[in-house]
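Lab notebook, design round three. We kept the backbone fixed and only want residue identities now. Task for the bench partner: fill in a sequence for the structure below.
Input structure tokens:
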């Protein structure tokens, strides 16, 4: 009887290990597929190139949330806040986001550490309101 239990236990472990390996392969493939789609659709970018830092932010740079969604275009930097153009805003207003939310700055765009929901829910109506905002 103990041989049967051992065989069943070993088989269960083998199935669990195989499922784990398949799960890792699926996740790997999904990640590669998402990167391919983003590249072909022009959404976001690879983690390539130097990070210019907040000092590298320039007017007309696209601003992307961490999820890859474009959330605006830089109008200019005001102290510790980025003012987004109102022309790209759904409500026709300027919105401000703290520079503390900047993850990296590439040659022609800015990546935030917040996703689009967090960004749009947390942006401010003036630069002074961003002074107390953290990362």
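Proposed sequence:
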């Amino acid at each position: 009887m103990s041989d049967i239990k051992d065989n069943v236990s070993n088989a269960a472990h083998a199935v669990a290990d195989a499922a784990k390996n398949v799960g890792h392969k699926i996740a790997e493939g999904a990640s590669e597929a998402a990167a391919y789609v983003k590249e072909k659709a022009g959404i976001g970018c690879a983690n390539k190139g130097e990070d210019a830092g907040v000092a590298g932010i320039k007017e007309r740079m696209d601003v992307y949330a961490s999820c890859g969604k474009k959330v605006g275009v830089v109008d200019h930097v005001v102290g510790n806040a980025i003012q987004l153009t109102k022309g790209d805003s759904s409500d026709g207003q300027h919105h401000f986001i703290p520079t503390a939310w900047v993850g990296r700055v590439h040659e022609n765009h800015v990546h935030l550490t917040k996703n689009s929901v967090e960004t749009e829910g947390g942006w401010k109506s003036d630069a002074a309101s961003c002074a107390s905002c953290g990362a």
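Keep this in mind before ordering anything: The first helix runs from residue 2 to 41.
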